[in-house]
Amino acid sequence: MISRNITTVISELNQWGNLNSATTFLVKNFCELFDWSYGEVWSPSLDEKFMKWSGYWANNQNYFLKFSKFSSIHKFGMGIGLIGKTWQEKKSLCIDDIFADNNFLRTEVAVQSDLKAAVCIPVLDKEKVLCILCFFMTTLTVEDKTKAGEIYNHSNEIGEALAQLL
Fold first, then answer.
1. For tag attachment on the chain, is the N or C end more exposed, with fewer CB atoms within 10 Å?
2. Does residue 83 contact residue 42 with C-beta atoms inside 8 Å?
3. What is residue 105's predicted lDDT score, i.e. its pLDDT?
C-alpha cells in the first residue's frame, strides 16, 4: 500500500512546470500521506558545493515558521549536518532523537518547534543527488522508518521524473 501511494504521487510529477514546484508537491504529499508534521527540500547550489534550503511544507505554517526561517538561511557542505551526511552517503538517514545527535546542527530551534526526530532521503538521478527531502516529527516510529525506506526505494524513479523538469 505504501509503495502504491508513492507511485501515485510520482506519476503526478510531470504536471508541474519546474523542479521547485514539483519538489514542494512531493514534500506536501508525503507529509500528508504519512502524517508527518514538517518537510523540507534541499537542493545543490549552482556550483554544487553546498545543499541549500529550497522550500518546505508544514501542517501548521504559523507554528513552524520560526524553524522554517532558521533553516532557510543555512547551507550544508558534503558530510556536514544531517543534510550534508545524506548528500555524501546517498542513502536514507534517520535521527531518532535530534537532541542527542551531535551531527544535527539546528537542534535548539527544532526542539522549540517540538520536532524531535527526522528522516532524510536523497532523490537520485542515476548517482547524482538532485535534491534531499527531509521530514520531521515529534517521535520516529518503526513505521516512519519503513515509510522513509519506501520513499528511498523509489528515489531513482522520483529522480527520473524530476530530471525531466530541469
1. N
2. yes
3. 74
Residues 6+ apart with CB under 8 A from 43: 19, 23, 51, 52, 54, 130, 131, 132
**Would you give the distance in Å from CA 86 to the centre of its chain?**
10
CA proximity to 124, closest of 152, 149, 95: 152
User: For cell 507554528, what's the residue?
Assistant: 63
pTM: 0.92
- Output the CA–CA distances (angstroms, integers) from residue 90 to 31, 82, 87, in the order listed: 21, 12, 5
Cell (9 digits) for 44: 545543490
Question: Average of pLDDT values for 54-68?
Answer: 87
3-state secondary structure the chain: CHHHHHHHHHHCHHHCCCHHHHHHHHHHHHHHHHCCCEEEEEEECCCCCEEEEEEEEECCCCCCHHHHHHHHCCEEECCCHHHHHHHHHCCCEEECCHHHCCCCCCHHHHHHCCCCEEEEEEEEECCEEEEEEEEEECCCCHHHHHHHHHHHHCHHHHHHHHHCCC
Rounded CA gap, 36 and 138, in Å? 9
pLDDT score for 1: 63
Distance CA 58, CA 39 (A): 6
